[in-house]
Amino acid sequence: MNDLLLALGTNRRARSVVGALKLPIPLPEPLARAAGPWEARPLEGESVVVSGGPLLAAITGALAEAGATVLVDDAALLATARAAAEAYARPVRVDADSRGASSANASGLASSANASRVHALVLDATAFETVEQLRAAYVFLSPRVGRLARSGRVVVIARACASTASPATNAVRTALAGMVRAIAKEVGRKGATANTLIVAEGAEARMPPVLRWLLDRRSAFVTAQPLTVTARAAAARSPAVVRPLDGQVALVTGAARGIGKATAQALAAEGARVICVDRAEDSAETSQVAQAIGGSVVLADVTAADTPQRIIDALGPRGVDIVVHNAGITRDKTLGRMSPEAWDAVLGVNLAAVIRITDALLAGALRDGGRVLCLSSVSGIAGNVGQANYSASKAALIGYVDALAAQVAPRGITANAIAPGFIETRMTAAIPLMIREAGRRLAALGQGGQPEDVAQALAFLASPGAQGITGATLRVCGGALIGA
Ligand code: NAP
To answer: Ligand 1: distance of its center to the CA of 417 in Å?
Structure first.
């Protein structure tokens, strides 16, 4: 029944009937997603309102490059923003809800009554240090949040808390993330997202590709999250806006189905040659995936002693750029009733194999500027009844990528984890109906995600534009309440 409602939610006519009859049936807003490879101008035809702030030029440049029409919130910002957008021949105007509306000139300013829907609101809060400055977040966002289009975006760009900053400054910085989590819950029913983009001092040049992705339809299921950009990992390749993985070699474990299959497809779509690893029992499915994307197959159990060497042999002297540790299993039972086999199996596949394969690849096959990506889980953040083994293994990966990131940073390699929330795969189809439905509803976006949502996040983290993100665990969870 509830899965039927989910299907109904994607049917436009059914949605309008439910709305017209005022039936008390919650139908989640279908999310706008992108199919196919990255586009040169994913924001073509979209309007984005930008606040003033130290990063105005960089923000405007990123938006204009992505094809957006930039609206600034004050006429005084026009000159800076226009200079930044000039190279991309994109218009810059003053937003109709501007505080400077009455004094603006004939530079394309619409009257407030004509204020139209916008795809996104971008607030540069990097200079905010006082409660008075924090108020500017309210002043910028409050009159505009109602104009956000379906599947729209709110991004607040902020600084990280620091031991060198005053308690008051850190309070304001923390306030921004709290505000964004609240906004995510408010706009979620429109299928819109709100995220915080934290930019470390000195990492400003690494911010634009991350902003671009957060505004793209490819981040549809990422909401209420902080993404931190740092200069921690040494510089590698310069970002490309299309086919960012051209010439790269990727390895994906558990590629036969679900998230692994979608990830192999997404990486290949961006230009990577993908080696698909899965168990011999999944030979037909794995071969099918590999064949469709021009990749190759290694049939291996990730826990087998000889698997790291078999992978290295398959890679050959060229080595590998992107490693996605996706293979994962659950063996649920409350701890007192959990068999030692269930504990060992889950820790073996989800953690020990990840460490062993990574260690082997780091000894030579993983190239400088590479990527190590692990599939953690919201269960590793919040813990789940009956999942002491699984939660342990998935929490472990959060600590693992953090420490690994420091170790590999000098080589320009980044290490990150994705923590999916409820994603519609075979793994979640096995969950009892009522718990399954709660898993979907207890999220700001009121629905489960698709394997492609996780795959798109992994493809982004694999791209050169994500060089500033390392040691992080990004939740792709639709703003799940669990563990938030
Ligand atoms: P899935 O549909 O069960 O697919 C997992 C794949 O990994 C299967 O093809 C499986 O092969 C393979 N695999 C399992 N053990 C293996 C081993 N020892 N060696 C090689 N391959 C092995 O899972 P999914 O839902 O796509 O999940 C993918 C990852 O995301 C997992 O790490 C999972 O923990 C994580 N995750 C998923 C969700 C979600 O909501 N779906 C949420 C949080 C985290 P077999 O079919 O032969 O077992």
So the answer is: 15
Q: How many whole angstroms from 401 Cα to the centroid of ligand 1?
A: 19
Structure letter (DSSP) for residue 29: P
Q: Considering the domain boundaries, does residue 304 fall inside one?
A: yes
**Which residue in 88, 138, 390, 400 is the catalytic one?**
390
Give the residue whose CA is nearest to atom 40 of ligand 1: 423
- % of the chain surpassing 90 pLDDT: 84
Ligand 1 neighbours by CB, cut-off 6 Å? 253-254, 256-260, 278-279, 281-282, 301-303, 326-329, 349, 375, 377, 420, 422-423, 425-428
Alpha-carbon gap, residue 82 to 89, rounded angstroms: 9
Same domain membership, residue 212 and residue 260:
no
How many Å lie between the centroid of ligand 1 and the Cα of residue 96? 49
pLDDT band at 9 (very low <50, low <70, confident <90, very high): low
Distance of CA 207 to the CA centre of its chain: 14
- pLDDT digit string (tens) for 208-258? 999 999 999 999 999 999 999 999 999 988 889 999 999 999 999 999 999
Q: What strands lie across the sheet with 273-278, from one edge to the other?
A: 296-299, 273-278, 249-253, 320-325, 366-375, 414-420, 473-476
**Distance from C-alpha of 232 to C-alpha of 216, rounded to nearest angstrom:** 25
With b meaning 16 or more CB within 10 Å and e meaning fewer, what string describes 87-105?
A: ebebebbbbbbbebbeebe
Same domain, residue pair 258 and 208: no
Contact 228, 469 (CB under 8 A): yes
Q: Specify the number of domains making up the chain.
A: 3
Residues 150, 98 share a domain: yes
Q: In this structure, what is the dihedral angle of CA atoms 464, 467, 472, 478, given to the nearest 10 degrees?
A: -50
Atom of ligand 1 nearest to the CA of 260: 26
Q: Do 213 and 195 share a domain, yes or no?
A: yes
Q: Does any domain span residue 19?
A: yes
Q: Which residues contact 79 (CB under 8 A, 6 or more apart)?
A: none
User: E strands within 311-443?
Assistant: 320-325, 366-375, 414-420
Task: Check: CB of residue 83 under 8 Å from CB of residue 61.
Answer: no
Looking at the structure, tell me whether residues 308 and 178 fall in a common domain: no
Question: Does 88 qualify as catalytic in the annotation?
Answer: no
Residues 359 and 434 in one domain: yes
Structure tokens at 294: 């021009």
**Hey, what are 308's tokens?**
């790291």
Token pair in block for residue 20: 């017209």
Query: 11 versus 374: which is more confidently predicted?
Result: 374
Q: What domain range includes position 69? A: 31-229
The whole-number average pLDDT for the span 376-390 is 96
CA geometry: angle at 445 spanning 211 and 393, to 5°? 80
Q: Whose CA is nearest to atom 37 of ligand 1?
A: 420
Task: Report the pLDDT averaged over residues 27-49.
Answer: 95
Distances (CA, A) of 292 to 200, 260, 265, 276, 349: 41, 14, 8, 11, 27
